[in-house]
Amino acid sequence: MPADVAELSRLRVFASDFAAADSVEGQLRSAGSKWERTRAQISAGSYVQDILQGRLDQPAGRGVIGKVVSIYVDEQGRAVVNVDFGRGWVVGIFISELAPIRFVAPAIRTGGDAPSVKGQPESGLLHDLVQEQSEYTATNSFGIYLTADSEGYPECASNWTSRALSPRPLISGADILSYDFANHLMTLTPEAFQRIPPAEARDLYANSPAPFVVVVNGERIYMGLFVKAVSSASFDLPSIISPQIGRTLPPNTVRIGRAYPTDSFGAGADPRSDNRIQRALASLHKL
What's the pTM value of the predicted model, to 2 decimals? Predict the structure, then answer.
């Protein structure tokens, strides 16, 4: 190979680590998204980082962040992940050469007016990512979020007002068909109902309550817990019991209890009845 061609090839290899504007990583950066490596399991639909620098035969501008399309086992028994880096480039990479990432949630306001999102694209990956980030601060928004690191109740109890939350809500206003504010019954779409208990916290949930945070118009209102119906412990925080044992509820409906195992275990003012929640749900025509 001529020296000039070899040099060009070498430059193109390392150029693949840089993200073009229309690559998956480029669009993430344009949306203002930030991420960090995590120990989560790699699965279809998750985002990963290619940790092998200068991978051969990759196009310039590919970037190192991609979205998992599928996973399979090759003839040698090795797990291979098909990763979409955007720009029509999907490549199979050994799972040992990838690191799962999680998105770091933006800081959430503790007061003041919600900022507007200007120049928002109408469709595509960038639109979806901006929508996820703006869920926190949109006017008349309601969301139930998990913590970004899926830590348990003891770890989150003291710092839930500042702890990073998941990039998108587990339950958003769009997932709620109606909310009975007197009894705190949420009737959800069938798809949203299937997300409870949350898959991201099921390992944690099997051993201890999984915390969630209710966010309204970008403000954190209260922390609650997903609690197993057979738990022998008691908690004075709002709780969603799953499965709902001993209570007949309408289809696709969950109740946010005042506490666990019964409402009488609650202490102090009931955060579920916060006027900010009521106003947001009323504005969304959910009451």
Answer: 0.53
CB 189 within 8 A of CB 172: no
Is-contact 144 170, C-beta < 8 A? Answer: yes
Report d(CA 208, CA 151) in Å as an integer.
10
Torsion sign over Cα 131, 136, 138, 142: positive
Give the tens place of pLDDT for each residue, 130-180. 444 444 444 458 999 988 775 666 677 778 888 888 878 889 888 899 999
Domain boundaries defined on the chain: 3-103, 124-283
Q: How far apart are CA 115 and CA 168, in angstroms?
A: 17
Distance separating alpha carbons of residues 137 and 105, to the nearest angstrom: 12
pLDDT tens, residue by residue, 243-262: 665 567 888 999 999 988 88
| CB burial of residue 213 (10 Å; 0-12, 13-18, 19+) | buried
